[in-house]
Each structure stands twice: as structure tokens, then as C-alpha cells.
Amino acid sequence: MASLYNNKFYHRDLSWLRFNHRVLQEAADVRNPLYERIKFLAIFSSNLDEFFRVRVSDIRQIKNIEKPLRKKLITKPNKVLKEIKKQVDIQQNEFGKIFNEEIIPQLASEGIHLIRHENFTEEQREIATKYYEESLKQITEISCNPCTEQHSVFVKNERLYLAAQTAEDEFLMVEIPETEPRFFVFPSEDDKEFYITFIDDILKYNLQKEFSEKRDTAFHSLKISRDAELYIEDEFSGNLMEKIKAALPNRDTGQATRVLIDPEMPEDFREILKKALDVTHTDVVLGGRYHNFKDFMQFPNPTQKKLSNEKLPPLPHPVLENCNSIFEVIDKKDQLLHYPYQSFKPVIKLMQEAANDPQVKTIKITIYRAADESDLNDAIALAAKNGKDVTVFIEVKARFDEQNNLKWGAIFRKNGARVIYSYPDIKVHSKILYIEREVEEKMKRYAYIATGNFNENTATLYTDFGLMTAHKKITKDLKKVFMVLERDMIVPKTKQLLVSPFTTRERFTALVEREIALANEGKKGLIILKMNSLQDENMIKELYKASNAGVEVRLLIRGMCSLVPGIEGQSENISITSIVDLFLEHGRIYIFGNDGDEQLFIGSADWMTRNLTHRIEVVTPILDEDHKKTIRDIINIELNDNVKARIIDAEQKNEYVKNSAKKVQSQLAIYEYFKNLTE
């Protein structure tokens, strides 16, 4: 491992695997209810699928670049891939132990038995046969293939298959239907003991009977993850949106980045399959009897027992929930929202009010990941239909959401909105809304700037902040950002907002340098940053410089972290924790001590090179003293988490924070914090 990272920078992809290990820790944590542990196994599996489709495919593409240029991009891609495979194998083994030695027995203790087809009773066999004949047989695709080096087989991306060698010279490929539930619950005789099986086992049992005349046929699971990059050849000419639309089907046929195979598959049959699939030993991961564990997000609970966490319903915003007009409220005072602790409804209400208010003349918004069904988007369409000047910037390069974003773009355009799609070589990742409203014959500006997407679904799962404001300088700056997006301005000269790729890096660097200067003067220097990821080497060097000057640096990093803390002469004044719990930590907060007069910012930008240099990001200062206190209170709670926080040390061992202080599970404590505000 030492050759892949040094004392200055931890390799980003290996660090991401350490984040996914933290997810796996939640599956192993007996303090979590049983079905929460199962959910974290599903999240771990889903995360790993995307990692292979995106990051591993990127590394493999780098292998094809000429060596001199490759050295500038990444260190020894073959060694990286080898280490990734090693770490994934370790985690997969841990995954298997948790599932087989802990989850399965605990399910049984609750009267829920997850059984294999080998353990079906006679009655269950009859039920499985009937289900296969009536529901599965007609929709199950089976192909018979010769065992020759010339014959190739295509396996669809992320789909589940069963494979069996039925003779010396042929094998079967069976595609498991996606239209049926992954789990089948057998009828219970006493409503106390319940038996559940995978649809895989229903198929195995019936197919083995069907093909048993050829030989003792054993069916084994198989799944392929394919390269998710779209590889648009030239983003700078022609219609980029149409090129992306045309390229989307390529995802289903891209290069294999991981081949998951049941380890019980005989080695000689494995070799036959590798040739037929045109993959190598490096591509193959022995991944257990069952794949697509993300399906466990819908694992049935046929009992009446409470086996999950108590739901934490979003709380009403104390000011915005029942107000007559959100515009009137914002006129008096900025409003801060924090999801999912508080409801996302005020954002929808703001857009609905704007759509129907005759005084509203202009609406501009950026959409990065749209919900499939969305009241917010319906309000945008209504605003355009009602004759407002509506401009929607849609980022169709938002990976895995391209199709949905294109769908909404067509709806907006149909209703009369101006729709602007992606720009070449840059993503618009900011979460911003701008409204102009005629008040006393003058145009008044309003803004909403957030850390998370305009998406009702993720607003119940991701922790994010949103600021509603009518502040003249902030709204004037935001108008300039939209002028850039509409190509009416090249560089936005903003006074309050930090805007990537124009000023964010420069402003953040200056803020760090100021803390360094304060420390050099013998004053207290303080930097507190909360982000999803920290990877940009230049910003990390700035934090190292701050540490060496004696600035206290506290970091809350959910995901990958390339900064190496605790190194003498480099980072001994830097401490990092990571929280993985009920909700996905997603908000970005930046706090600078400023000699006691703290400056706070929220925004969409992680300190990754892509966010600072290759994306449109917007970061806003928090100017209202009440809101500054709220954010600081929340950060203090998170910094004191000693239940779900892990220490990110130089080796990223993911040890839980342990101390003798009163137990603080930050997400539950923050929920109570906001609950008290509403009482």
C-alpha cells in the first residue's frame, strides 16, 4: 500500500473504499436494528457497483494513455487496480461473514428464515414450481451456447444471470427477470414463522429439474458491471444534448469493469465463461452466491415486529410552514432550512407561489438531479405556462440521471420555458434559484442557494442546507451567475458569492491564508470544514501550511479524503472525523475563525479539483447572526459525535470516536435541536 500513497496524499480511490468500509461498519454495528443493518449491506453493495462502473473504468482508460502523460494523471494504474481488487476482496469477505454469520441467524431468531432451494420442503417445492410455471417461465430468457473459443456471449450491464454447464460442449445463460420482486415469501402456516427465498432459488430449483436429463446441472450467479462513461468524442461541436442522448445506450454495452461470479462455480467452467465473455482474471471478483444486494433495500418484513429505526419525519419550519407568503417573510429576514430534519415543502411552496404570483416576472433555476415525479418541477412548468420568463439550466451530464433530466427538459420546454442544456467540458453543479418580482414598479430580486439538489426524494435522505434571501448584494451576484449560464457574461465579478471556476479557489485560499496570518501574529487561527470529499492537492497543501502555522483545523469529511492528518511537521494540528448514520451527510459548510468574528459559508462545492476548476459551483456567506448560530450549533454537535463518528487517521483505519463524554449521536441530537425550535 505504501507505494500507492505517501505521507502527503492518500490515494483518492483507496480512500473511497475506506468510506465504503464505514458503510459496512454500520452493517456490522449491533447497535443498529436488524433491518437497518440489512439496509447498510444494500448501500454498500450499490456503492461498490457504481465504484466499478465509474472509478475503475476511469483508471483502466488511463492505462491506455501514453506513459509520459499517464504519469501526470495517476501513479501506476496497474498497482492501483491490484490494490483495489485486494481491498474489495477483503471487504467482500467481511460482507459475507456479516450476512451469513450474523444477519441470517438474527433473521431466524425473529421468525424470518431466508432459505435456499436445497432446503425447500415438499410443500415449498410445489409452491415454487407453481410460481415458476405461472409467473416466471414465460418471461425468463434462456440461451444455449457452445463451449468454443470462437463463441462469445453478451451479458447486459448490472443484470442478474444464472449460468450452468449442461454438457461438455455447451452451457446455458439465464437472465433473471427484473419485472418480478427479487424475494418470494412463502405462505405462513402460523403467522409466526416466515420463509423467504430469492427468485434466483426459485429459478435454480425449476431449471435444474428441467435440464437434469442432460447432466447434474448446477446453476451459478453471474453479474457484470460495465463502464458508465459516455465518451462524447467532441463536446465542442454540434448539439451536445443530442450527443449525450445518443450515447446513453452505450452504457449497456461498455467494457466490463467487474465480473461477479459465484465462487462455487467450477474453475473449468469459469475459464469457459471468461473466454465467452471476453474478460480476464483481473476483471473477475468471486462475489458470493447472490448478487445485487442493493435489492435488500426492499427486503420484506412479513412479521408485525419493529425491526427498523423509528422514522424521523421532517419537522415543519418554524417560520415558513404556515406563512401566507414566503416572499413577504424573506423580505423581512433571510430564512435557513436544513433537510431532512426540516421539511422541503417551503422550497416547493416558494416555486408554487412564484408560479401563481402576477408580480413575479422572471424565474431562473439550475437542475442537476431531478426527481422522477416532482411537485417542484410541476410548479416550474406551471410558471412557464402562466407566462413567466422561465429559464431552466439542466445538467444532462449528471451521471445516471441523464435520461430523467432530459425528460423534464422536454416538459419544461413544452410549457414555454427556455431550457439550456450542458456546456462542453464543464458541469453546472450549483443548486441555485433566482426570482425577479415587481414591487412598487421596481424589480426586487430573491434567491435560494443550497448545498443539495432540487429533489424532493433526496431531501428526505440527504442532510443539506438551503438559504432563502432577498439580500441585495447576494441576489445581484446570483443574477450575474445566471448571466454566465445564459452566455451574456464571461466572468461574473461577484462581491459576496464564491463562484467556481472563477473565484472559489482564490477566495478559499485567501481565507485560509488569513487564518495563517492570525496564527503568525500569536492569535488563534481556526478552520472548520464539512464536506463530502477532500481531494484537491493545492487546497490540501494550504491546510498543511495552516497546520504548520499553528492553526487549528477541524474537518468533517463523509467520503474520500486525500489529506493525511497527524503527521509531525505537516498536519499535527489537523483532526478529521467522518459520520455515517441514518441520513447521508451531504451539506458543505466552511467556517473561518477571523479572530473571533467567524465567517461562515455554505455551498455546493467540495474541495475537489473538479468542483473548484471544472464545475459551476456557488458558495454563499451566511450573514444573518441567528443562522450563523444555528449552523455553529449543528457543527458543534457533529464535532462531538462519539457514537457514529469515525476517526480519519493517517492509515484511515476507521476507528470509532471513543471518549468518556456523554453519548452524542449527532443526527438524533440535531433532530431534537430542530424539534425544540418548533415547540
From TrEMBL:
<feature type="binding site">
    <location>
        <position position="462"/>
    </location>
    <ligand>
        <name>ATP</name>
    </ligand>
</feature>
<feature type="domain" description="PLD phosphodiesterase">
    <location>
        <begin position="424"/>
        <end position="458"/>
    </location>
</feature>
<dbReference type="Pfam" id="PF13089">
    <property type="entry name" value="PP_kinase_N"/>
</dbReference>
<keyword id="KW-0597">Phosphoprotein</keyword>
<dbReference type="Pfam" id="PF13090">
    <property type="entry name" value="PP_kinase_C"/>
</dbReference>
<feature type="binding site">
    <location>
        <position position="558"/>
    </location>
    <ligand>
        <name>ATP</name>
    </ligand>
</feature>
<keyword id="KW-0479">Metal-binding</keyword>
<comment type="function">
    <text>Catalyzes the reversible transfer of the terminal phosphate of ATP to form a long-chain polyphosphate (polyP).</text>
</comment>
<feature type="binding site">
    <location>
        <position position="586"/>
    </location>
    <ligand>
        <name>ATP</name>
    </ligand>
</feature>
<dbReference type="Pfam" id="PF17941">
    <property type="entry name" value="PP_kinase_C_1"/>
</dbReference>
<dbReference type="InterPro" id="IPR025200">
    <property type="entry name" value="PPK_C_dom2"/>
</dbReference>
<dbReference type="GO" id="GO:0046872">
    <property type="term" value="F:metal ion binding"/>
</dbReference>
<keyword id="KW-0808">Transferase</keyword>
<keyword id="KW-0067">ATP-binding</keyword>
<feature type="binding site">
    <location>
        <position position="47"/>
    </location>
    <ligand>
        <name>ATP</name>
    </ligand>
</feature>
<dbReference type="InterPro" id="IPR041108">
    <property type="entry name" value="PP_kinase_C_1"/>
</dbReference>
<comment type="similarity">
    <text>Belongs to the polyphosphate kinase 1 (PPK1) family.</text>
</comment>
<feature type="binding site">
    <location>
        <position position="399"/>
    </location>
    <ligand>
        <name>Mg(2+)</name>
    </ligand>
</feature>
<dbReference type="InterPro" id="IPR025198">
    <property type="entry name" value="PPK_N_dom"/>
</dbReference>
<protein>
    <recommendedName>
        <fullName>Polyphosphate kinase</fullName>
        <ecNumber>2.7.4.1</ecNumber>
    </recommendedName>
</protein>
<dbReference type="InterPro" id="IPR003414">
    <property type="entry name" value="PP_kinase"/>
</dbReference>
<keyword id="KW-0547">Nucleotide-binding</keyword>
<dbReference type="Pfam" id="PF02503">
    <property type="entry name" value="PP_kinase"/>
</dbReference>
<dbReference type="InterPro" id="IPR001736">
    <property type="entry name" value="PLipase_D/transphosphatidylase"/>
</dbReference>
<dbReference type="InterPro" id="IPR036832">
    <property type="entry name" value="PPK_N_dom_sf"/>
</dbReference>
<keyword id="KW-0460">Magnesium</keyword>
<keyword id="KW-0418">Kinase</keyword>
<dbReference type="GO" id="GO:0008976">
    <property type="term" value="F:polyphosphate kinase activity"/>
</dbReference>
<feature type="active site" description="Phosphohistidine intermediate">
    <location>
        <position position="429"/>
    </location>
</feature>
<dbReference type="GO" id="GO:0009358">
    <property type="term" value="C:polyphosphate kinase complex"/>
</dbReference>
<dbReference type="GO" id="GO:0005524">
    <property type="term" value="F:ATP binding"/>
</dbReference>
<feature type="binding site">
    <location>
        <position position="369"/>
    </location>
    <ligand>
        <name>Mg(2+)</name>
    </ligand>
</feature>
<dbReference type="GO" id="GO:0006799">
    <property type="term" value="P:polyphosphate biosynthetic process"/>
</dbReference>
<dbReference type="InterPro" id="IPR036830">
    <property type="entry name" value="PP_kinase_middle_dom_sf"/>
</dbReference>
<dbReference type="InterPro" id="IPR024953">
    <property type="entry name" value="PP_kinase_middle"/>
</dbReference>
